[in-house]
Amino acid sequence: MPMEIAYNDLGNGQPLIFLHGFCESKEMWKAFEEAFSPFYRVLCPDLPGFGESRWYEEEVSLEQVAVMFEEWMEELNLEKPILIGHSLGGYVGLALAELMGERLGGLGLFHSTAFADDEEKRGVRNRTLTFVEKHGVEKFVTSFVPSLFPDYRREELQDKIDYVLRLALKTSYPGLMAYTKAMRDRKERLEVLKSFRSPKMMIAGQVDAAIKLEDSRKHEAFVDFYFELPETGHMGMFEREEKTIEVVGKFLGRYCRPSIISTEANRSGEI
């Protein structure tokens, strides 16, 4: 079906796309827009079914979403866009890498993975579908969002949690259900990541409850730039805002254009 994608568009230069995750929206990238729009054309779209991009169908696949975004990029005449995707946004980014190859100028997986769901995770998705069908979006997201942050930091991060929750409450019922199924049924794309020839980055949280750290580390050999955030869960852009902006800037500066941030990074968390 035809899809109108809502998006923010700031700055000039090489396109840099930030793609949000499940039950999120483009507003989550405000600090990144401010940091990178002086150097890039920063675009932050809403995935169909989230934010201001509506989705009314019962089913969607990541491959369909990738085609929608390829068409959106073509409409905007975006050449060699660099795409950084959080969680679900990274899954869509990998589907785009498979579809577009080196027409993408770079790919960043931000608390994401090239692996498919394992049996345990598929069970979680199925329970989510049952719960939301019975209780609705609001009851689900009010329990889901806090779980993305480390339990021992939730009091410290309460303002951030409240902000993410406000974004999540805008999620449509069709979007939530369709993407839960799409994530559950997605295929593994580790070979896509391995063969993708443009610059690649992964950011992992050392206490991420949604993406296992041992799985993230299995990607390290296949990306150009790998970084782990200590004492960080699934929402590093909020838990470690300044650090993650610096890490993304380092990736862009070292691999995608002349250096913006010239400090050295290593896996242990020092930049």
UniProtKB/TrEMBL annotation:
Transmembrane segments: none annotated. Keywords: Hydrolase. GO terms for molecular function: hydrolase activity. It holds the Pfam family Abhydrolase_1. This is Alpha/beta hydrolase. PANTHER family: MONOACYLGLYCEROL LIPASE. Coiled coil: none annotated. Residues 15-112 form the AB hydrolase-1 domain. InterPro entries: AB_hydrolase_1 (IPR000073), AB_hydrolase_fold (IPR029058), AB_hydrolase_sf (IPR050266), Epox_hydrolase-like (IPR000639). It comes from the Bacteria.
